[in-house]
Write a structure and sequence with these properties.
Elements: H1 14-46, H2 62-72, H3 83-99, E1 109-111, E2 118-120, H4 129-150, H5 154-185, H6 190-196, H7 207-220, H8 232-235, H9 245-270, H10 293-313, H11 321-353, H12 357-377, E3 391-392, E4 408-409, H13 423-435
Parallel strand pairs: 3-4
Antiparallel strand pairs: 1-2
Helix pairs in contact: 1-2, 1-9, 1-10, 2-9, 3-4, 3-9, 4-5, 5-7, 5-11, 7-9, 7-11, 9-10, 11-12
Length: 436
């Protein structure tokens, strides 16, 4: 039994860990194929079109066909690229994305069929498991940065620089939202955090932190409306522009696995983990929270959050980069930091004064509602009056042509032909006007 960890891995040996690791790997690869089909199908329904419906029943084999296409395509290598780093970058992204599920609990202790042997439905756990998840996510961005830099091209480099700024910004907000869970649970072990949610799920008392985490996880995985590192309309394909065949597929695979990772972390820390939702959890004294049922509840919650990813993609438009950074630094991080400070004060007061959990939840919900109301209805600062006429804008002032901003106009082109009016026709038009 590991100190500070709820799950008991004392009966596991090397073969047990190996089998669990292989099962997790197979689960992630199959889930990516299903996620690609699922996303196309849901977006197709949102856009009033069928989506994949040719290859296999309901188009289920479309993802497999796409994988085979990438596998059999010609593998191109850029001449100007740093070859070692160019090949290593997608491997870093995939490897780091595969590590997160090692500490995610799929369920409690389960008994294998036809045997008396039982084991936790989790590969491993330790007292700082959530910090391990954040570390894997942080190292994974090196694959994107190195992939864009090593390609020896401008657009991939711009995409990788954008990704660096994006991950730093949104990982700060994500980390601060997770601190709230640590304060309330008193542990960073994933199995212990799930155990602490026996009576209530943490998304209820920690609703502001949960909202910040959901927004941050979309930005962390480079998904619409935050897919600035690979903005097709601006950077061709961002950091993946110079990649083809299986090297491109590795980046693609890492993106979808990261979607599953952040969804599983949200389920574990905020949505009760593998526990059945109320009132199903009260049936027969929690019978649905034992055996293999918890694995079903865990997967259902993960795919519910995957639907949120697709729903947001089919609904919202891509933000401008300045809007994206302002939202991260001026909204998400201050809200998450303020919530951590408030929760720390309330938790310290509750422990010192002996306030029960129900009162704590009520106070936190009321304060959260007040904060959201203040942020929503706070009067905006009066904007200075704009000049009456549009400002003449010199697009070549700094030696590089840039388009004008709203309220600016370009000076008249010197190559434009002046408009001349024929004097005879003008006189005849005037005479006609006089006779009328």
């Amino acid at each position: 039994m590991i100190p500070g960890v709820q799950a008991d891995f004392s009966a596991d040996n090397g073969w047990t860990f190996l089998v669990k690791a292989v099962l997790i790997l197979v689960f992630l690869l199959v889930s990516v194929l299903i996620a690609i089909w699922f996303e196309r199908k849901v977006v197709g329904r949102m856009q009033v079109r069928p989506g994949p419906n040719v290859h296999g029943p309901f188009g289920l084999l479309q993802s497999l066909a796409d994988a085979m296409k990438l596998l059999l395509k010609e593998d191109m290598n850029v001449t100007a690229a740093d070859r070692i780093v160019y090949l290593l970058a997608p491997m870093i992204s995939v490897f780091c994305s595969l590590l997160v599920f090692a500490v995610v609990p799929f369920g409690p202790e389960v008994r294998l069929p036809f045997t008396d042997w039982s084991t936790p439905a989790q590969l491993t756990d330790f007292p700082v498991a959530v910090l391990y998840v954040l570390a894997c996510a942080s190292v994974g961005v090196y694959g994107i940065v190195l992939g864009g830099w090593s390609s020896g091209s401008t657009y991939p480099l711009l995409g990788s620089v954008r990704s660096t700024a994006q991950v730093i910004s949104y990982e700060l907000a994500m980390g601060l939202s997770l601190v709230s869970v640590f304060i309330l649970a008193g542990s960073m072990s994933t199995s212990t955090i799930v155990e602490q949610q026996t009576s209530r799920w943490f998304f209820l008392p920690l609703l502001p932190a949960f909202v910040v985490y959901v927004i941050s996880m979309i930005g962390e995985t480079n998904r619409l409306p935050f897919d600035l590192p690979e903005a097709e309309g601006e950077l061709v394909s961002g950091y993946m522009t110079e990649y083809s065949s299986m090297k491109f597929a590795w980046f693609f695979l890492a993106e979808y696995i990261n979607m599953l990772n952040v969804s599983a972390v949200a389920v574990t820390l905020f949505l009760g983990g593998w526990r059945a939702p109320w009132p199903l959890s009260a049936i027969n004294d929690g019978m649905l929270n034992t055996g293999w049922w918890p694995v079903l509840w865990f997967l259902a919650k993960v795919w519910l959050l995957m639907f949120v990813f697709v729903w947001v993609r089919g609904t919202l438009l891509r933000l401008r980069y300045d809007q994206f950074m302002v939202f991260g630094w001026k909204v998400l991080i201050p809200v998450a930091l303020g919530w951590v400070v408030l929760l720390s004060i309330v938790q310290y007061t509750r422990i010192g004064a002996g306030i029960d959990q129900g009162t704590l939840v009520t106070v936190l919900v009321i304060v959260g509602v007040v904060l959201v109301a203040l942020i929503t209805f706070w009067p905006e600062k009066a904007k200075p009056e704009e000049p009456a006429g549009p400002e003449t804008f010199d697009a070549f002032a700094d030696g590089y042509p840039v388009p004008p901003l709203p309220g600016q106009v370009l000076p008249p082109s010197p190559r434009r032909r002046p408009v001349t009016v024929d004097a005879t026709s003008a006189t005849s038009d005037d005479s006609r006007e006089e006779t009328r």
